[in-house]
Structures are given as structure tokens and as C-alpha cells.
Amino acid sequence: xxxxxxxxxxxxxxxxxxxxxxxxxxxxxxxxxxxxxxxxxxxxxxxxxxxxxxxxxxxxxxxxxxxxxxxxxxxxxxxxxxxxxxxxxxxxxxxxxxxxxxxxxxxxxxxxxxxxxxxxxxxxxxxxxxxxxxxxxxxxxxxxxxxxxxxxxxxxxxxxxxxxxxxxxxxxxxxxxxxxxxxxxxxxxxxxxxxxxxxxxxxxxxxxxxxxxxxxxxxxxxxxxxxxxxxxxxxxxxxxxxxxxxxxxxxxxxxxxxxxxxxxxxxxxxxxxxxxxxxxxxxxxxxxxxxxxxxxxxxxxxxxxxxxxxxxxxxxxxxxxxxxxxxxxxxxxxxxxxxxxxxxxxxxxxxxxxxxxxxxxxxxxxxxxxxxxxxxxxxxxxxxxxxxxxxxxxxxxxxxxxxxxxxxxxxxxxxxxxxxxxxxxxxxxxxxxxxxxxxxxxxxxxxxxxxxxxxxxxxxxxxxxxxxxxxxxxxxxxxxxxxxxxxxxx
Length: 490
What we know:
GO terms for molecular function: 4-aminobutyrate:2-oxoglutarate transaminase activity; pyridoxal phosphate binding. It is an enzyme of class 2 (transferase). One of its GO terms (biological process) is gamma-aminobutyric acid catabolic process. Homodimer and homotetramer. 38% of the residues lie in helices and 11% in strands. The two termini are 19 Å apart. The protein has helices spanning 7-16, 22-26, 44-53, 89-92, 101-107, 110-117, 130-136, 155-175, 182-188, 213-218, 250-270, 294-306, 375-390, 393-412, 438-450, 473-489; strands at residues 75-77, 83-86, 148-152, 200-204, 236-237, 275-280, 310-314, 340-343, 350-354, 419-423, 432-435, 453-454, 456-458, 462-464. The strands form three sheets. It has a seven-stranded mixed beta sheet, with helices on both faces. It has a four-stranded antiparallel beta sheet with strand order 10-11-14-13. A three-stranded mixed beta sheet has the order 1-2-12. The longest helix has 21 residues, at 155-175. The protein folds into two domains: 2-28 and 392-489, Alpha-Beta Complex (Aspartate Aminotransferase, domain 1); 110-389, Aspartate Aminotransferase, domain 2. With 490 residues, the chain is an alpha/beta fold. It has 16 helices and 14 strands. Strand 10 (419-423) and strand 11 (432-435) form a beta hairpin.
């Protein structure tokens, strides 16, 4: 694969990879290449186990049954003993590889045992060490300009609680120091205004923000997520549809982004009720790995400031290093930070960051549930963050992303009849491309699996990469070799 990059650029990239292999340090027994034990994947054991599971559990989306006891590093094992190089990683949720020894140490600590067997209702009975756990992990990793956190149970819950914070904040601005009126109290119990808010959360076409009721009303990626479920009548704005390569379509893409910004501002200005907040992903992951430039996101920040609309950045999938920065929105160089940044996945924990203390309700039980997060997951997040810092994994991810992108540019250019629109340059390993249609995309994924490569799709016809932060050149070369073999036969 190195032959696809020539001259000084090759020497520069090779020099970057001369440092000690973090993957080898963590996983000295990691497979050197995929291990295939059965003619097909899923194999017979996986098929049988999945059939049994289906009798008690909805398993319609199962790829194969995994054996996590035998998965290691960048390789996922199935029930039949096949070991696949994993560039999907539980939908972007494995940061440091399977069975990472440092996380296992954290999991076996007395602190972890105590947090699991005595799981606290954090809002009422926070543990003596919860502030320390947060300060050494999740808060240490906070996006620039943010020093407060709300912890939650999942990405969907993180977004839902951010929405609640936005509504309470906007109404508090209107109400001032006045108490709730009797009319507000009574009407809220009837799900009517003025007690129930008629404000909205604005999201973008093809965005994905979760599957709970509020988050689902802002999800716009696929109908299958939303069918049969009641929804709030909240507004939707267009998200730019860029043309690639970006360097060849600068004028067209700038015009497209300006069109979307103009449409957003018009929607905010003409909305029948107040837009409390907008929410956007740095990359629309489930909707097809759709990117936009800093110009667009800077415009969003300016518009929200102008109209006193809160700006929520959904970093559930993009956060924690995969983009070549700790937080993907750091690529934007905003004039001021977002109002809230939600997170989950690679941190194994969930919640949202913020800085304005007014986003924290003044009364108890307003932002509340039994758990309000989970100290055991915050302990894991701390371990993940500390290993990221210790091994400089964000910069390493940026470097391996450059290597992948340059090689993919060469490989995919050979097959323009089936693949196109490579995107994610200078964005770590957050790389994707389109296939000519869904059938071709699905065949590529299945054929790659047969050769020991686990990839995932998104949108209607796209393929995305979501490897670990310890995915290195040796893994990249295996991935590139398998992919080119599959494309040559597609």
C-alpha cells in the first residue's frame, strides 16, 4: 500500500510511524492478520446462538454473535472463532481496543466494585468521590471553554437532557425571578401551554440524535427510526450537500452552505414559536457521514447568537479523538464555544458539557432521574482519557487518518464506476465514501467480512470508518489490502 504514496510525502508519513506501537504495548497477542475458521460469517455456532437469542430478544439487526472474551485489540471475534479486523467498533464506541489491559485494571479496582454494587441515585446521594472522578476524567477532557457537566445514561439521554436544559433556560429568561403561576402549574399537568412549553428544538435534514421521544423528533436520518412513533412538530433545516473533491468545488460548496444558512435564519425568524436551541452533528454520522466546512458551522454560531438561540453540538459519535482532535467541533475555530456539547460512545459514559451556570435549573428535581449517570462508567471514561493523554492518541489518530485518506484516494480512484465522494480529509479516521447504490454497498460490506474485515455502512449507500484510537499503520495496511481486493471483484 505504501507504493501509492511517493517521494517526500511517503518519507514523512513513514517517519511518523517509527514511534513505539501503542497497540503492541497493550496487546502483544493481538492477531497479525484476520483469522478465518469458517467458510461464511456468520458461522454455524453464531447462527445457532442467534436463533436461540431471537426467542427472547429482538435480534433482527444482528450481524453475527460476538465472543468478547476472545476479542483483542483491533480484532473482534465471533462465536465460531473468526477474528475480524474491526473498523466499525460497536458503532464507534470502542476507544482503546477490545479487552484493553488498563481498562481491565480500572474495572477490577475497589473503586469500581464499590460504584457498581452501591450504584447511587446521584442527584440525591452523590458519592464522596464523584467530583474527583469527574475532575480526573470527563471534566479534564471537557471541550475548550466548558467547565460544567451533566451526566446521563446514553447518547439519546444526553441529548434529551440538553433539550430540557434549553427549554428551562429560555423560559427562565422570560419569567425572570417570578415564581411559577397557578395557571402554569395546572396547565402543565394537562400537557398544555403556558405550563407546557410550545418552544422547539431545530435539527437538520439527515441528522441523527437518538431514539427517545424528544431526540427522535430531532432525528431525520431514516424513516425506519420514526415510523409509528408520535413526534413533536419541530422544525427542520437543510444541511449542506457538498461536492467532492472539495478543492474542485469551492465556489459551489460555499454557495450551498450559504443557501442552508439563509434557510436556517429564515426558519428561525418565521417560526410560529420560539426556537429554543438548534442541534447539529459535526458529521452527520447515521445520515450518511455528511460533512460541512468551518464556514457553515461558524455561520450557525453567529446566527444562534444573533437570535438568542442555544447552540447544541452533538458529539456523541464524533467526540473523543476520532476526528484528530479531542472534540470534532474544535476544527471549526468558532468565535465563541457552543452552549452545550453532548457526548457518549467512546467515553462509555454520557452527558453534556456547558459553562453557563444558568443552564443548570435553580430548583431540584427538574433535571432528574434515578441514576443521573453512572459512576462506574465515569471511572471507565477517566481511564480512557488518561490513556489517550499518556499515549498522545489524538495526534496519532490524526496521523493515521492522513495515511488512510491518501491511500484511499489512490485506491478508490481506480473504481469510479462503483465508489465516489471520498471525504474526511484532515479529519482523523472519520472517513467515508459513497457507493453507486445500496446493493453495491451491502455487497462490499459482506465480501469484506468474508475476508476478515468488519466495516459498517451509513445513510442509504455510504461506507464509514470507525476504528479504535489504537488503529495503526499495520492495521491500516491490512484494511487497505482487503478493501482493494473486494473492490477489484465488485
